[in-house]
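Q: I'm writing up a methods section and want to include an example of the input and output format. Could you take the sequence below and give the corresponding predicted C-alpha cells, formatted cleanly so I can copy it straight into the document?
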Amino acid sequence: MTERDTYKTISKSTESILFKDKNSKFFGYAFPVTTEDDVKFYIKKLKKEHHAARHWCYAYQIGKEKTIYRANDDGEPNNSAGMPIYGQIQSYNVTNILIVVVRYFGGVKLGVGGLINAYKTTAQLTLDASNILKKTINVDYLITFDYKNMNTVMRIIKEKSLNIINQKLEMDCQITISVRKKEANQIFEIFNHLFEIDIKPI
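A: Here is the clean output for your methods example:
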C-alpha cells in the first residue's frame, strides 16, 4: 500500500453563501487556516461583520497527516450545527479549512432536524463554491556546503527538478529545498552520500 502524500484544501476564502429556511438566514463562509489562531481571527471578524446575528456555528480541520478538528454549536441544540458542518468537511475530504455558518433567527423554530439540515446544506453549498485544490505533502531539507561544491549541489537540484524555497550563497552556502514526501528518502540519500555536503530535515 502506497503512503498518501497529497491532501485537499482551499486556496482562498470564499464569498458568503446564503441559505434560507422559514425566515431564518444562514450565511456560509470557508477560510483557509493552518493554526487555531487563524480560526479565532476569522470568527472574531465575522462576529464584527454580523454583530446582529444569533449564532456563529463552525467546524474546522487542521493538519495534513495527523489532523485536529473541532465543531462548535454556539448555543444551538447539541450536535445540530457544528457536527453537520464538520460532516461536510469530511465528506469533501478537505483539511486546513474553517467553515462558519452565521444564523439570523427568523422567528420560526426549525427543530433539531431542520437545524441539522440547514447547517449541513449551508456548509455543502459553501464547499461547492470553494476552489478546492490538491496539494502534495512535502518534506523540507537544509543543505549546507562550501562554495566550491556549488556546481555539484545545483546539478542535482536541476536534474531532480527540486524546489528551492530559500538560499544563502556565500563562502558557506545554505539551500533549503522542499521535496514531495514519497521522494524525500531518495533525495536525502543522494545528498547524504556526497563528501563535504550536509543535509538535514527541518
